[in-house]
Amino acid sequence: MEEPSVVPQPSWRVIVAIVSVGAGILLAAFIGLAIVEAGGWDIDVSAAHGAEIGRTAGQVAAGAPLDDNRIPTGVVVALSIPLWLCLVAGPIWARAEGLEWRRDLNWGFRAIDMPIGLALGVLTQVVVVPLVYIPVFAIFGEQDVEAVARNLIAGVDTPFDVAALILLTAIGAPIAEEILYRGLLHQSLVDMHLDMGRAGLVLATCASSLLFAASHFQALQLPGLFAFAVIAASVMHRTGRLGTAIWTHVGFNLTAVVTLLART
């Protein structure tokens, strides 16, 4: 008789999640910096997490201006691939150690997840995020929240760049990030604090959402990203399926991209 698999402890799963994020950021940074130097580009503000560290290092070393010789969007997507691989590698490793994705990560999809998730993602981008920034602007004054996304859009010169941008926003980021942040990290934190009841759920949601927002290395975007992450975690908890959170992420990202593309 086959013995039942031993589920990895929640604390171990949290460590795996954090290590996956850190390894992905560092790997993407080193690879990104090498590619950027080889291509002769000035390093621009991008939406690729790991490229942010490479961007800072390159600017300090070369004194490169932000807007000259901008990296093509297709290259930015390529810089994101090492990060995505690391984000997914953590849950795969945990699965090899006995974690079951359907049970422990809420892995699952239903047809209803698509319309619900897309609608919620659009609503979050159009309504919730602007509301979040009302008190921020009241305290710190008006800020250019769209600068990062606009710089990324500015690198779109060819149909290939458009396709790469869709890959970045609608496929790569939603799948990889939701598996890691809402699936492995959030659910592990929930399991760690089961004895705290609803307070434990709130704590897990806030902690995983804060790490998600902070990992983008964009201080100005942190409040909006945090709000989105809280909504994504909440809808996953409500439906019991990671698929709803993934589709919410798709709707959130695509709304920003389509809006900015329409303005160019």
Shape descriptor: globular
Task: Please describe the biggest sheet, giving its number of strands, its sense, and whether it closes into a barrel.
Answer: none
How much β-strand is present in the residues?
under 5%
Helix content: over 70%
The separation of the N and C termini measures: 63 Å
Rg, rounded, reads: 19 Å
Give the uncertain stretches in residue-range form: 44-68
Output mean pLDDT.
83
Number of helices: 10
Q: Which key features would you list for this structure?
A:
264 residues; mainly alpha
Detailed description of the structure:
It contains 10 helices and no strands. It is mainly α and 264 residues long. It has one domain. The termini are far apart. The model is unreliable at 44-68 (pLDDT under 50).
Describe the secondary structure blueprint for this structure:
Elements: H1 10-39, H2 49-62, H3 73-96, H4 101-104, H5 113-140, H6 147-154, H7 159-192, H8 198-214, H9 222-239, H10 242-263
Q: Can you give me a brief rundown of this structure?
A:
The chain is mostly helical and 264 residues long. It has ten helices and no strands.
